Each structure stands twice: as structure tokens, then as C-alpha cells.
Structure prediction request, 698 residues.
Amino acid sequence: MFERSKILLVATLLTFAGLSHFAGGISPYYFDILIGIGINIILAVGLNLVNGYTGQFSLGHAGFMAVGAYASSWLTLKYGYSMGSGTLNTTTVFVLALLGGGLGAALAGLIVGVPSLRLKGDYLAIVTLGVNEISKGVLQKAEPLGAQRGLGGMEQHTNFFWTFAFAAITIYVVLNLVGSTYGRGFLAVRDDEIAAEAMGINTTKYKVLAFVLAAFFAGIAGGLYAHFKQFIHPEGFNFLRSVDIVVMVILGGMGNTAGVVVAATLLTILPEFLRAVSRYEWLPEWLRHVAENRMILYSLLLIVLMLTRPQGLFGNFTGKRNSKLQ
Amino acid sequence: MKRPLLLSTALALLATAALAQDEIKIGEFASLTGGSASFGQSSHKGTALAIEEINAAGGVLGKKLKLIAEDDQSQAGQPATIVRKLISQDKVVAVLGEVASSKSLEAAPICQQNKIPMISPASTNPKVTEVGDYVFRICFIDPFQGTVMAKFAQSKGWKKVAVLTDVKQDYSVGLAEFFVKGFTATGGEIVKDQKYSTGDKDFKAQLTSIKAAKPDAIFVPGYYGEVSLIGKQAKLLGIKVPLLGGDGWVGDSLLKVAGNSLDGSFFSCHFSADDKAEAVQNFVKKYKAKYNGETPDDMAALGYDSAVILAEAIKKAGTTDGEKLRDALAATKAHPGITGSITLDEKRNATKPAVILGIGGGGFQFVQTVAP
Prediction:
């Protein structure tokens, strides 16, 4: 089982490397959306480990994304251009900076997670929300990182390959971890924390592990984001960004990785698709007007989806397998 | 069933492609929704009015202008996506936007890389135009207001001025620095230099020490939240000299909190609808007619000017080629805009007059314009 998934991962990575070759040919706008999809997949699949599989409610994922974005940008700005040019050099620096950003975010996750994961449900949500605001507040005051003016000047290193390679690795790690014997601990914590504790499972350890891993991937996503947009600002990692990611997880179906991937993709494309619809001149006037108010339409769609499919888009698909797991 | 639909789509696309020959596309990104929507809506309305007028007057180079405006929801990350769309999908020849400096800074590198000129109507952070030679702005940058207020203070015959700076805001520190430089260079004296931080509520200690120095005026280049409290407490302490400030004073709550305690004070601003100049009054009339009697604010005026300057540059360049358009924009001299005569300097920043507004009678009154 594990062998097969490893082969699958390597094959996927090779395919992405091949596809990346042709990515230069597509329009920069579609490319922007594609990269956005990849980054959102990493964020949502990572958060799903906490909110979905472990049953905790974290509402501050963008805070860890911010740590990763700023840490990796600081690394490439400080060391990136002193190591000489050449693709090999810049790529090495970039990937090391990404990992550095991920580790920084993981460390932040550990510092936040150890004390706060003793809380449950709503309380944890409020604490993580607070952490999100604090990290934003600190960045707004941090002079060496541009403070309120934002941080720019990074070169565009993020490409199709690295974005989707990290997305594939995130999915691989999360799926394998949850599927392993060890990973059953996460599900046990979600299903019944008291029972799990009675069975001798160290619930705090599992919760912290899920939290730290999710923070690590958020940090990577932040690094990819920073080196794609080439300008970051504390406001870009606010509470609303965190909510976006939570919505992807809930819409995809808590604890359903395939669903979350689809939801992240759909929710990234949808606002841009509605933007395009409002410009189609062959559509009737009133329909274009409706599409113009795309953010209202977007919210309405979310409400309808939640009313009709409270278990998430793919909630039922793997319901059988999940029940077997339980 | 599917075929005819496909065919009609193809035909529609062809039709739009044919139409596109007769128009010049201009992109705009603005915060039409979200936190800074009031700024974005205003600048967009001004821009749209300008485009409409230019088209009514026959367009540019024999073609109509087409404004493609996109909403960035006041969200970081969106401007980059939108500007990529405007450039690669819509093939715009230039980009107008944004009010917020952080949004302009995100879009500027993309315009620069694609050699598409970008004009920001109201981003005052000096770093915006430092991104590259395709990025312009038509508003003055922060420090300029300090210089303007120094000139104004001199024209009033004030010799001794105290300064009260918000040390947490680059904006405030920048204004104070240039005010002091301008004021002392021509014989003025700074009798007291006091500081406070954003969020402070009590300024009596600073104001008492300022009062003891007996200044002719006090320069307070902060934001309206603190300034309203400073005005109130200054009156309580019996300080009768006027307070001076910059466009950070503009905010609904300034007079609500300060009441009449700021009467007789002055601040600099981009534009005033009360300005009696003919161009301004014409603009106000046209704007009110188009938008149900709404009075244009400074963002609307700047949005209008940005579109007109772009159209003039296209005319002058005789082409929409990015490089030639950039050169034509860079050569903008003494353009008679709504917000004054605009000249773009070698750093692509605008040199232009500022408007001085006075406070009294429960509102803002136009006092004069001060040339740079």
C-alpha cells in the first residue's frame, strides 16, 4: 500500500516537472489562477489535518502563512542574491528559503499549540484567531520587514512545478499519516477525546503534532505566495484569509482530502469565473448585472451548498470508508 | 443543440474582436467592495466620468476609449491577479489604480515587467513610483504637504511654530520633517517639538509645554482620530492659536469629536469642491449630474485627472505602444487638471499645488491654493 502511494507520488512529481515545461505558454492570468489553486490546496489540505481529521477548530491559519511568507522572503532577500546567479543557485536558495519559512511557521505553531491545544472547540478557535491578529499586528510594526509599507523586491521564483510539487507532497504526507496505524490517533481524538485518553492515547501530543504539521505547510504556502506576488503586506494575512481556508475545508467535507482539494480548486476559480461572466457580451444584460455582484453570488452559493450538502461536497463519497475506519 | 451554441459563441467572439479594432482599452483596478470601498468607488466614478467625456468629444486617435474596471475587494493578493488579467486577457494599453499604496505596490512590478504604463491616482507612499519607469502618480507625495504648510504659515506672518508629531506614523514624521525644513529655511523658528503615538488619548502634557513656549501656531500632522482629541484638549487648556495639518485630518469624525474647538485651524488637501475655479465648478456640476447629486471628493477628482492625463498622453504619443506612451506620460507638463496644474518630475511624481482648507461654522472651507 505504502509502496504504491510512493510510486504514485514520484510519478505525479515527474508529470508536474514535465507540465511545468509548457506552463510558460499559457496566459499569465490563467497561470496566476493556477498557482493560486496550488497554494490554496496546500493551505486547505494542511488545515484539514487539524480541523477535519483531528476535530479541532483552528481559525488562524493565515497567521502561519504570514510567518512563512515573511521568513522565506527575508531569507531570499538577505542571502538570495549574494550566492550568485544561475538557475541551480537561485533554485537552491529558493527551496531552502521555503523550507526555512515552513520551519519558522512550524515553530510558531509549536509555541502557540502547546499551551492552547489544552483548550477545546470554541475556545481554541478564539485563541487561534487571536494569534492570527497578533502575528498581523507584530508584522505591521516590524520595521526591518517593511512594517505598514509591506515587503517587496523578491524575485519571482514560484513556478508551476514547485507549487504543485509541494501540493502533492502535502496531500501525500497527510493521507499517509492519517492512513497509518500511528495516524489513527488523530481520528480517535476527533471521534471521542475522553475515550481516546482512556485508551492511553496522548491526545495533547496528537493535537500539537497535527497543529505543527499544518503550520509547516501553511508556511510553505506563504513562501510560495510571497515569491509569486513579489509583494506582501500584513493585511493580506488577516482574519478573512483564514476564513477563506476554513470555508474550503468545510465545503470539501471535514476530513476528506479529495473533497478539500476539489473545494480549494473550485473556490479559487469561482470568483474569477464570475468576473469573466459579467463581461460576456452575448449574455442578456440582466444576467451580466447579476454576475457583476459576484461576491454576493459567491456567498449565496456557499449558503446553498451548506444547506444542501452540510457534509461537504464529497462528504458521502468516502463516508463508507470512514465508517470502516471508525 | 450544442453546435449552434458553439457557433454563436465563436461569432460573438469574432464580433467583439472586430469591435476591438475601433477602441483603445484602458484597465482600472480599484477597491469597489471591501474595507476601502469608499475610496475606490469615488476614484472609479471620477475615472468613468472622464472616459465618458473624452468619448463624447470624439475619443482619442479616432478611436473610443473603453474602460475595463475590475474590483480587488480591498484584498491583498487580488491586485496582482487582476492586473495580470487586464494585461494578458484584455490587452489594455495602460492601467489606472489604486488609491491604497499597498495595492499599487503589488500591481506596479507586473506593469513594469510587461512595459504597460500605470498611473496611480492617489497612492502617496514614495516607494510606489520607485518600482520602475512605467509607474506614475498624479498626486503629491507625503512630504510635500509639510513644505506647503510651511509656506502657508509664512504667508500668514507666523514666526514661531510648535510641532506635535505622531511618531508611530511614517506619514506624520515625514510631514513634520519637511515642515521644519521649509519653515526654518526662511527664518521661521520651531519653538517646541513634541511627540505622541497613535492611539494616545491624553495630550495635555505635550500641549501644556507647547503653551508655555507661546507659539503663533501648532503643526499637528496626524490622523483625524488623535487630531480631534488634540483640538478639544487644546481648547480646554486655553490655547487660542490655530492648529495646522495635512490630508490625514480628512475624516467624518474629526468635527463630530472636536466640535467647534478646531475652528480657525487649517490643513492641506488635494481638492475642494468649494474651490471657485471654473474647471473645478464645471467638474462638480458634471459629477453631480451623473451621480444623483453626490458631491465629488478628492479621490473622485484625482481619478478624473488620472484618466484625462492618460488620454492626453495617448494623443501626444500618437500610438498606444507602451514605450512611447511612457515617454509621453513622463513629459506631462502643466496639465490643467481639476486638482491643479500637474507636472510630472523625473521621478514620475506629480508637482502640483495643494489646497488649503479652513475649519469653521461646522465644516471645511476653501481658503486658497498653494503652488509648490
